[in-house]
Amino acid sequence: MSARGSADTRHRARRALRRWALPVWALARRCRPARGTWLIFAGHEVGSELPHLPDSMRISVAALERRVRWALARGRVVTVREGLSLHAREEERRPLISFSFDDAYRGIATEAAPLLRRLGVRATLFVHTGTWTGEWLPWTDLYFALERALGAVPLARALAAELEPREALLAAAERSSYELKSVLHRGCDEERRDGALRALHERELGGAAGLARSIYLQPDELCAVEDVFEIASHGVRHRRHARLDAGAQRAEIQGARASLEGALGHPVEGFAYPFGRSADLPEADGALLLHSGHAYACTMIEGVNRRGSDPYRLRRWPLEELASESELSALVRGGLPRWLRR
């Protein structure tokens, strides 16, 4: 079995394990004090305005409201930047809970912002600035639109004519759309993948130029939601940092921060790694982020943060993932053992 196949098998097994083990773990953690913990939720789109996105990347307004009300009843809801300061204080006894959203999809302004204003809380929004030109669109958006229109197997066949590893692409598509995306993400040359997806999108669905402005918030719209969102960086072009050399990492980190600060008129201190799994992170990026003026960086490694956690490797929990209130309470009271994390 290939390394990619082994990773996918482990991922499926871990998700299956969590389905029955999480309730048991939650029961065992009920009596543990929830001091010194900081749970950061990570979401993407809110509402159903963008039909090309999979369900795993969006949450309904009603579900988000339930999650925020749960957090207000059990902890102190803060932005990630506020949480970074409060988490270091020994006198802070209530668990800290933050809501963060990646990519700045349009529903953040139309659906999430009004809800947060009504509930009186603030969240953190991680923005990639490359979409501001209107000419560039992340490869994932092209993929989601094509997969929705064609289906995973026909899409894989079309891409396999242009990309390697052909057999891995075809085999992954037979299993699931998720696994096809995983092979495209970690197994293909990035430039060739992006070019093949752009060409196929133009042939099947029309040109992608200009679509970015209809999908992602633009600078003036970001300014309009600053009352309920801390605006932070997600890089320029949502690139996987594990594959970038130091110069390219610096360009992504510093370029996005400069664009955001120019648009907002004040310092931007936060960063979230694109994709954010362990395999997507560089061995050492904290020093570069620190020297670039960032105070923290979020990953997509599941879990909670404790006092002493590395501020440049903050863990988060998927907002869209279905979990009962007892399971969420277990997270606040100490998180998950390693064997239950993704």
Could you provide a short overview of the structure?
The protein is an alpha/beta fold and 342 residues long. Helices cover 47% and strands 14% of the residues. It starts with a helix and ends in a 10-residue tail after the last helix.
What are its keywords?
TIM Barrel; two-stranded parallel ribbon; single chain; alpha/beta; 47% helix; 14% strand
CATH-derived topology of the largest domain: TIM Barrel
Structural class: alpha/beta
Question: How many structural domains in the coordinates?
Answer: 2
CATH homologous superfamily identity of the largest domain: Glycoside hydrolase/deacetylase
Helicity, as a percent range: 40-55%
**How many individual helices?**
14
First CA to last CA: what distance? 20 Å
Note the main sheet.
9 strands, mixed
Oligomer: single chain
Looking at the overall shape, the CATH architecture of the largest domain is Alpha-Beta Barrel
Number of strands: 11
Q: Report Rg.
A: 20 Å
DSSP strand content: 5-15%
Task: Tell me the series of helices and strands, N- to C-terminal.
Answer: HEEEHEHEHEHHHHHHHEHEHEEEH
Mean pLDDT: 88
CATH class of the largest domain: Alpha Beta
Q: What sort of overall outline do the alpha carbons produce when their principal axes are compared?
A: globular
Low-confidence stretches: 1-8
